[in-house]
Design a protein that fits this description.
Elements: H1 8-20, H2 26-33, H3 41-53, E1 57-61, E2 69-73, H4 77-123, H5 126-139, H6 144-169, H7 173-192
Antiparallel strand pairs: 1-2
């Protein structure tokens, strides 16, 4: 199996050797390529030596001249095509895996912002304020003022928490809001089992 993928230039040399079906020297390969491919004799030798290092070509030494090598293929064209196709598919899956990993990291960062938001509520004592407000509503249930102001009271606590989180995260208010909205979409998509639409 080749350690590295065959380059387009190397593939041109292999096409000549596959079509010939018998050993060829670098000079013979160069003569067959001349006129069709703009490649020097030296480059042909370099590429054929590289193919030999990749275990795609092998050679025998000429019995009359030890400086002449007769190259022959070790792997058929079908094998190389299958290997090239396999590497292409692997590269696609690898890219998809990297995309999933980057998205997972992004989701983790976004969830971290949500967790930080809730921790800020706890640190500022908003849970106790909420509990005190509910107790007060129970004790003074006849007073409609508490019921009317409940929504504004909750909104004020969220506004205070958001301001503290924005200052700590060094983000703009818009960026912080987009993170919360995107996290909400991800959580909703996780419940429904459908992928969420990512906002840019």
């Amino acid at each position: 199996m080749a350690k590295e993928e065959i380059t387009p230039s190397e593939w041109q040399i292999m096409e000549i050797l596959w079509a010939c079906g018998e050993p060829l020297t670098s000079s013979e390969v160069y003569k067959r390529m001349r006129g069709n491919v703009d490649m020097s004799m030296r480059m042909v030798r370099v590429l054929m030596n590289r193919l030999n290092q990749k275990d795609i070509l092998c050679y025998t030494v000429d019995e009359h001249d030890s400086r002449v090598y007769h190259y022959y293929v070790q792997r058929s064209r079908e094998e190389c095509v299958k290997e090239k196709s396999r590497k292409f598919v692997d590269s696609i899956f690898q890219a998809m895996g990297q995309m999933r990993w980057r998205r997972l990291c992004r989701v983790c960062l976004e969830l971290k912002s949500v967790v930080q938001h809730e921790r800020t509520h706890i640190r500022l004592g908003h849970l106790w304020f909420g509990l005190a407000w509910d107790v007060l509503r129970c004790l003074l249930w006849v007073n409609p003022f508490l019921t009317v102001c409940q929504k504004q009271f909750r909104a004020d606590m969220e506004d205070i928490c958001d301001r503290v989180c924005i200052q700590g995260s060094r983000r703009t208010a818009h960026e912080y809001g987009m993170v919360l909205l995107k996290t909400l979409k991800l959580l909703r998509s996780g419940r429904s089992g459908t992928p969420s639409a990512e906002t840019v």
